[in-house]
# Entry
Amino acid sequence: MIKKLLSGIDWMRDTFSPYANHMIFIVIFSSALISVAVQGQQGEAQLSAILIENVNIFDGKKDAIKANRHVLLVNQQIEKISDKAIPYQGDVVRIDATGYTLMPGLIESHGHLSMVDTLNNLKHHYDWVDIGVRQAAMAKSWLLDGFTTVRDVGGPTMGLKRSIDAGIVQGPRIYPSGAFISQTSGHGDIRERSDRHPSIDRVQDEHLQRLGYYYIADGIPQVLAATRANLRNGATQIKIMAGGGNGSEFDPIDSLQFRPEEIRAIVNAAKDWDTYVAAHVFYPDQINRFIDAGGMSIEHAPAIDEATMKKVVTKGVFLSMQMNGLSKELKDSPFNPPYAKAGIVAIQKDASNFVALVKKYKPKMVFATDALGDRDTQTKQRRFELYERARVFGNFETLKSATSVAGELMRLTNRRNPYKLGKLGVVEEGAYADLLIVAGNPLADISLLGANKAWIKAEAPQPVETIKVIIKDGKVIKNALRNRNESQ
Ligand SMILES: [Zn+2]
# Structure
């Protein structure tokens, strides 16, 4: 029954897409009733069960493969992992995965699902429908590359998250930050010279500001209001701009942004909701100001120095850096806006110690692409990031940063965590059933997950055929293996 239910859902989506969700609801609801009738004497009815048999496991934590295991998924979670066959009464989808590897779904810790094109195009050519539709397509492309969770660090993605959670569109779990919070002329103040200021001129006429991409906030009352507005809208953590950047025109790259007392106010307002703050920072003085005020996630931080790295490790701060940002591909990219080039050259020079410091101090580093642009552009960037990180830090460190370490970062959201039922980023009993089955061992060959040496000049992306199965929240998203029930 479950098998029919799963294949039936796909068929209905294709055939009756406007009505599919009602029909899915009816099918699921009626199957639940049948389940209750059949399994009534066993206690609680179970909606779906998947048994993955004879599979090798990379658990997200150890640089090792456990061979020939059996894994039972019930509803949204991993119920049991065993080295013996697991007897299961009742309907179950059996996946014979002999010779394949089961691993946690990947986690992106610095995504921008709402940045669906260049800033210039977003500002001048897109209304909210363009952005919404493209966000949905973007979310699906991340999921089909094996990313079952994305921490979105800036931009209006709360509605996308709600739509995905409601089953209306397919995509990863999203931890949204909502609007970037930036000081006037900070990295998130992306107005053009001709745009007026929201509080000095008392007008909110810049398009992306109205759409919820950023707040310009100065002084404690304004930063508190911006933080609380994001929390009100469903932010699971807060993202601020605490230093200069390359993608913005009116802030020097070395500038310190937000006064310490403003950052402390934001951190405390987030703590009052039992969550944390992430900050865009490049240089040690920016990083130190943020961490000293209680910040827990540093985004980028390529020019970090040794003393600051020690502090990051001591305080358990997460490091969310992109290796694509230090690449020749980025420096030579024809898509850099004219004002960005000098900053990219400068930061790459100032980041010459970054890799050595990470290798020496082993901070909690998460996989983070900072992918921007349309769907194919983001796909190319994430596949390049996988390649480039693995080249520098090795396959295991790259995979751990995209699974168990990132899962730990997601749990910093404490009571604001929308996905509290189990852990993310690990294969263990009780964890969420967010899983991939890969043709081969990704610890030995990262290209099985789509890692690609080319980025800007890469070919148009094709599906990653070596990711055979994608399961999110206990539901099969993709299955290119034959279910055992079908062959019997
Ligand atoms: Zn970013």
About this structure: The mean pLDDT is 90. The first helix runs from residue 2 to 15. DSSP finds 17 helices and 18 strands in the chain. The CA atoms of residues 448 and 465 lie 8 Å apart.
